[in-house]
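Q: What structure does this chain adopt?
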Amino acid sequence: MNYELRIKVSGQVIKGEGYGRKLGFPTANLDRRDYSRRKLKIKYGIYAGIVEVINYQLSIINYSAAIVIGPVDKTGLPKIEAYLLKFKGNLYGRKLSLLLVKYLRGFKHFKDVEGLKQQINEDIKIIKKLNY
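A:
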């Protein structure tokens, strides 16, 4: 594969605000200790990527994902979350590694929730075509 990026961020899945789930796109929100410790400076926006999940048999399973970096929250750090395509289950408390592969776009403001959902679906179509 010819990756445009190879930025890896790891962290434990923590409870988020639940907004992605309400939209129909549940995300795994990562704590930002790795991001902060490594002093990473990642452009905010939406990325196509791969998420490594270690299953209960201790083998790694890779999932294509839409990854969101930003915006900054009350702590001054960007949110880091991923929507794993074709994943069903609970990831709370598990450690994930997110590999950012391709920058898709910056943040946009939407008039309504339907516009946001439509954009997320378009992002997912692009990620599926990339076939990670």
